[in-house]
Description:
By secondary structure, the protein is α+β, with helices and mostly antiparallel strands. The protein has helices at 24-28, 46-60, 70-81, 123-128, 151-161, 206-217, 229-235, 266-283, and strands at residues 4-7, 10-13, 31-39, 42-43, 86-93, 110-117, 130-136, 167-171, 177-180, 184-189, 192-195, 222-224, 236-243, 247-254, 257-258.
Amino acid sequence: MPELAYLDGDYMSIEEAQVPVEDRGLQFGDSLYEVVRLYEGEPFRLGPHMDRMRRGAEVIGLNLAAAGDLERIMRDLAEKSELDTAFIYLQVTRGVCPRNHLIPDELEPTIIATARKLQPIPEEKYSRGSVAFTRPDLRWARRDVKATTLLPNIMSRSYAINRGGYDAVHYEEDGTITEGSVSNFFCVIDDVVRTHPADERILAGISRATVLECAEALDISYEERAFTVKDLFEGASEAFFSDTYSEVMPVHQVDGKDIGQGRPGPVAQELRSAFRDVVRRETGTG
């Protein structure tokens, strides 16, 4: 079961795939990306991932139509790799040209995709819950665009992981919590699930949308309403992340302080179970 790459029409080993030094994705981070999870070889919610990339392309003026059938490329890569549990990473750059901040006209986009095996998170991690650390949100103002300019994200995530955490929790100058470095963030306050509204200050995750659908189906009250670090520490009975890798990851401690009872709460556990049911139903997996 090989890990494979796709580069501008050709399939190859990941080690063989190389892009020119003057690709704008390399020089400027002038590119968009998506990460789709495979369950027993079947991509989960590929359509919404592609819709989000199209919206991002409109914002930055990237000619995504010239990239061809990206959904078919991802499905073909999944099929050729024969990987069951995996990630498909897709990146579309604006293309190759001499380095210039001015966006040139009529560039041919570069299409990069990889299929890599995924090691599932151990079940005990969910039952024990994860640790998080707050970090100032230093990212650009259009976080709704899934661009590859991720230096603030990797600095925050590395800070959290190096201290034994799962992810960082970003907050703005006024204390408003936005999201994690690779995830969306939720808390439960007064029996209501709260998460930041899907505006330009966060990336509206596909897993986030799935969690809210599950809450709706389970008649769990929720609000897309901002909350602060103070709200989290003084009023939250639960907290959890959502992302493509973990689906729903309970958080029992932030900055060394227990959230609620200091263990995964019932709402996160119920939503995770419902999320798994959605995956099984939509992908036809066990």
